[in-house]
Amino acid sequence: MSEEPERAIASPASFYHARSKECIGNGTFASRSYGAGEQITALKRPLVGSLDTGRLRDTCANCYVWTEGSSIGSRLYVKEGTKVQVCAGCKRFRYCSLVCQKEAWKRGHKHECKALKPISDREIPKAVLATMEILIRRKHGLIPDEIWQMLCQLGSHIEDFKQNGKYGGIELMAMGTSQFSWTQDTFNKDFVAGMYARVLTNSMTLVTPTFDPLGIIIDPILGHINHSCAPNAYIVMDGAEAAVRTLRPIKKNEEIFISYIDSTNPRARRQSELEARWFFACQCSKCQKGAPLDEDKWAVEPLNIPKKWKKLADEMIDIGEEWAISPANHVGDTRDDKRLAAIQGRAFQDYEEEQGIAVPEDAIKKIEDDMRLCSQSGLWPIHRQPYAALRDDLIVNMLAVGNYENAWAQCAKRYRYILPKLYPQIHHPVRVVQTWQTAMLALHIAGEPTSMALPGVDMSYIAFMLVLEVLHASRLSHGEHSSFARSVQGKYEEMAAVFKTKLGPKADEVMAKEMPQQRAYLMEMGTWVE
Ligand SMILES: C[S@@+](CC[C@H](N)C(=O)[O-])C[C@H]1O[C@@H](n2cnc3c(N)ncnc32)[C@H](O)[C@@H]1O
């Protein structure tokens, strides 16, 4: 192979591959013991990353800096004024600097650019673009044999696609991939179909450090990590760098697991999603235990479903609503279990519909309606899905329309009741990022005249307290040297300096006295909204 792509594994001896005891095929195992919040390994960049169509316009195709990042606080690590410029050749990818453009060029874009140029006006799905890049780079000797072999070892699930009737679509996409990439002379059509299917079934979401989705990544090392609904590790991204970090301590020779899905969902939904997208029946330790674990608990026993909701559920079952009878919502076999399944199905259906609404004002209306189903039925504990996920979306949309005070009440509630329940580890990356969002909102409110002012409440203290919490947790969740942790550190220092100026030499003393009281106010605010 010619030119070695720039791709370094921080510590190749930190893990090894061997047959998995829990899962199908091989898995990734720890070569030594790790504490909670430690990095196992980091890749300078995954083998291939491919942006969502919407992100091609505002995100660097090399370092994945999202220049237009939305929610409060999510852009702190993006340098002010960062813009992306389109590649004059392919007119598809954009770069934030000449350095990024050169890196991408060397990695393979010099070949890909020529192939993409004649089709610059066509919208091409991200999985096709990712497959094209893989084929082009391999054809031109830019993927070394060792990496290529590992990639080809990942399951393509062609037989599964043939069985579920989707193989026709895959063949069609593969045909386009072949033609567009000018690689027909190197790879035959079955091979390309296999590679495209491999991308579909082994890709992970490309995210910002605050977990905003940007596209997909595919990497043979990350792709060899099995799934668990009770993972002991996760992947965190910092620009193009992808690190595997521990959620809890991992012993030497223990298997490393990440979660491919939202593992806060009820068991049947998790199982269905894994089966549908990755073609396996999850055998993780959590699924083995069966329901009901926390994710599956209802606020009332099935027997005690309020009459009105029983009636509604019966109607849904009688007319055969798909969600009412879908295995994804399975609760149990009694009539009442089936009623619960129908109501839950409706809630998830509403959640999916809400996510397709682009206008924030419309989304808010829909989400509030959907949340009413969960709250008024009295069936949902506050942390049960999709109630919690609806609240997350409500916050994002309220922030988008500048409805900061209501967003704050929701954030305070989530902080008090939901985050500790869904993410018990204080350094769980989702908990850290959502706490960060809450901190930045508090800071924003502190700087505005507000009708929320309660006697004694000082939002700047609350913001500072939350930033301090994130500062400690981010070193474990993202790593001390990550751009996220460094941004949090920067914000902390900035705020500490303001307090010092305002309070003078007694600043530390005053703050130590004030903090517990402000924390109590924060907790009280968590009870403001139903
Ligand atoms: C991305 S690959 C992971 C590596 C794979 N085990 C291998 O040998 O290359 C995903 C595949 O691993 C298996 N797998 C991963 N997690 C699993 C789990 N929790 N239970 C059962 N099989 C699992 C399934 O066959 C799945 O399609």
UniProtKB/TrEMBL annotation:
SMART domains: SET. Keywords: Metal-binding, Zinc, Zinc-finger. GO terms for molecular function: zinc ion binding. Transmembrane segments: none annotated. Pfam families: SET (PF00856). The keyword Zinc applies. Residues 13-261 form the SET domain. Residues 60-113 form the MYND-type domain. PROSITE patterns: SET, ZF_MYND_2. One of its GO terms (cellular component) is nucleus. The keyword Secreted does not apply. PANTHER family: EG:BACR7C10.4 PROTEIN, HISTONE-LYSINE N-METHYLTRANSFERASE SMYD. This is Uncharacterized protein.
